[in-house]
Amino acid sequence: MSTNAVQYAAAALSDRGRKRPSNEDAFGFSVECGVYAVCDGMGGAAAGEIASSLAVEELLRHLASDARDKTAPLDEVVVEAIRAANETIHSRARSNARISGMGTTLVGLATEGRRILAFNVGDSRCYRLRNLHLEQISLDHSLVEEQVRSGRMTPDEALRSPLRSVITRALGTQDEVTPDLFELEAEPGDLFLLCSDGLTGELADPLIESMLAADLPLEEQCDRLVKAAKKAGGHDNITCLLVRVENWDL
């Protein structure tokens, strides 16, 4: 199948929320090149904003570049792009004491025809809505979610835990980082949501599912999600990026 046969559409929106003085989230995408990313930065003195922006820039530079090796396996190209982003952030932090220790989460998609590779570092999430059913594709790299998966904590306990914001992996905080990769195959009508925890921390999955099920333009869906998260509290920066599989030539 030709990599040009499948059509995708995308839209995104980011908001600082109601409590934070600035927005340390970042997003970027190229429908033409099949790359989409959301990052949630961390660190004082605007370091989080720097880290998230650097991550998005590096990812797009590697995956949306004309110089990209189109013959290389997609997973290898994605891993190399994430490695480069991690190195760039870590190197910048070491060279400036003011932003030392900065880092960012990352969640994204890379597409080649019907093939979709989802990837993440940290607790920003990837969801897929298929046949009106919402499924979380990514796995949170957070202390409480890892304890839930190991059976040491219940989901209800995780929601109430004071440690729920502690993440176990991030870009830029260490010399190396290992992303999770998820191999998927697109179907017509699939809708992917990439988001920071400013959205999922305010809206439960069933509500997100019902909102995404509405037959609305992607831009309007993003706006509704962000407004709902702000109405629910807006305690953190809120970013959502929607990617829809339109159709392809059979």
What CATH calls the topology is: Phosphatase 2c, domain 1
| Oligomer designation | single chain
Shape: globular
User: What is the radius of gyration computed over CA atoms, rounded to a whole number of angstroms?
Assistant: 17 Å
* H and E order: EEEHHEEEEEHHEEHHHE
Strand content: 25-35%
- Overall pLDDT confidence: 91
Percentage of residues in helical conformation: 25-40%
N-to-C terminal Cα separation, in Å?
A: 9 Å
Any idea how many domains?
A: 1
Poorly predicted runs are none
Based on the coordinates given, report the CATH architecture. 4-Layer Sandwich
Number of strands: 11
| Highest CATH level, the class | Alpha Beta
Tally the helices: what do you get?
7
The SS-based structural class is alpha+beta
Describe it.
With 250 residues, this protein is an alpha+beta fold. The chain has a single domain (6-248), classed as PPM-type phosphatase domain (Phosphatase 2c, domain 1, 4-Layer Sandwich), CATH 3.60.40.10. The chain is 31% helix and 29% strand. The protein has 7 helices and 11 strands. Helix 1 (47-63) runs antiparallel to helix 2 (74-94). The longest helix has 21 residues, at 74-94.
